[in-house]
Every structure is written in C-alpha cells, then in structure tokens.
Amino acid sequence: MHLQDILYTQGFGTRRVCAGLVQQGHVAIDGKAVTDPFADLDAEGLLFTVQGTPWAYHEKAYLMLHKPAGTECSQKPSTYPSIYTLLPSPLRLRPNKGAVQGVQAIGRLDQDTTGLLLLTDDGQFIHKMGSPKHHVPKVYEVTAKHPVDEAQIAKLLGGVVLDDDPKPVRAAACESDSPLHLRLTLTEGKYHQVKRMLAAVGNRVEGLHRSRMGDLALPADLAPGQWRWLTADEVAGLRAPAKAAKTPK
Fold this sequence. Notes:
Elements: H1 3-9, H2 15-23, E1 27-29, E2 32-33, E3 47-50, E4 53-56, E5 62-67, H3 89-93, E6 104-105, E7 114-120, H4 123-130, E8 138-144, H5 150-158, E9 160-162, E10 165-169, E11 173-178, E12 181-186, H6 193-200, E13 205-213, E14 216-217, E15 227-229, H7 232-239
Parallel strand pairs: 7-13
Antiparallel strand pairs: 1-2, 1-3, 3-4, 5-7, 5-15, 6-7, 8-12, 8-13, 9-10, 11-12, 13-14
Helix pairs in contact: 1-2
Keywords: Isomerase, RNA-binding
Protein name: Pseudouridine synthase
Enzyme class: isomerase
C-alpha cells in the first residue's frame, strides 16, 4: 500500500494532505524520514511517526475508553464536553464509507455515568455489541441512595416493568456486597435502564460505573479520560458468543 494511502486510512487527512506530510519529511519509519508518498509498504503491523507522534497501523480501530463523569457520548454535545475530544484527531477523522467518519461509541453512557466505553469504526462489530439480540452482558457498579435489601434484589432478578414497555426487564445477575452498593449485570440497553430499574424497586441511583462488557473488564490502571487500543485477543473474545452471565467477584 502506498504510504500516503496508509496515512489516509488512519485518519491523517485527505490523500493530498497525507502526501504533503510525507513530502515535507513529517513521516518517519524506524526513525528515518520517508519523503516518497508512493513508497509501497506492507501496512500490516507497520509502526511509524507523524510529526513526532508514534502510530501503529490498524485496518479497523477497536478502542476502550474510561469515560469520566461530566462528558457526553455525542458528536454534538448539548451541555458537557464530548468524549470524542478525549481522542487524538486521527481516530476522529478515520474515513468510513457511507457512514460518519471516525470511531463511534458502542452504546452511550449518561453524562454522570463513568466507566468502560468501547469505540470502533467497524459497523458489524457495533451491531454485534450493541444489539440486544446478542445478549452481551454489561456489568454496572451501582451506588444506591438507600440500603439495598434482599427483596429489592429479588425484584431486580425477577423482573420489573418500566413505564415504556409492559414486558418486564430483569437483571441477568445481581448482588450487593455492602448496604449501598449493587453489582448489576444487564444484557439489554434500554434508555436510563439501571436508574429506572432501581426506581422501580423503590431505590435511587446516586452513582453509576460500568466495569465490564462481555469478558472485557476496565483495567485498574486506565485512568478516567484515558483510552487504549484493544488487543487482538480482546476483540476476538468480544466477538465470541455470549456466555451465561455471571456476576464477577
């Protein structure tokens, strides 16, 4: 693949802009500037720098982000900063045929909700992870306003009715390890679902954090606002059929 095309697929601008970056000596491989935009390279596994910033070629982008509180999962936020401002420009500008450019969040978290958020430019992967038909378990750490009792847990596991659907929704797993903390596993993604489920059993969410999606847990060393690439094994694990939901210890 030509070097200018490699840069283009990674979101460094139009092909003309990418050619200019190369011709001006801003792109280096193995520490040496490459000035021929038509240099033919094996893109797979290629490591390079653009204006001193290291980058690795990825045919498709698969990321995790530790969403901080006070951010919106929207390209056009209304009140709070967008999560997309936490990502480098190339991830926001990656070309995508017939769709919005750049990576997109898989589902949304409320502005006050923190935790694991996946982003990608792979439309099929977005559908796989976001569709309720695939039953991908998502684990939420809930801080409740009032102590959680066994009756509330039983109702959450048995099913509660929300105001927009007569069909009960139920937690796939639920446990409380302290009076005001609840670990809740869901396989659906209804609007404000955790908050509405807690309200339906007579309680209230004071804090909400998503700690896991499928077999992928938010790493303890990924601070709020930070992101990283998913490994090939992590992507493969997320693509695998959903297992019976268990509440992680």
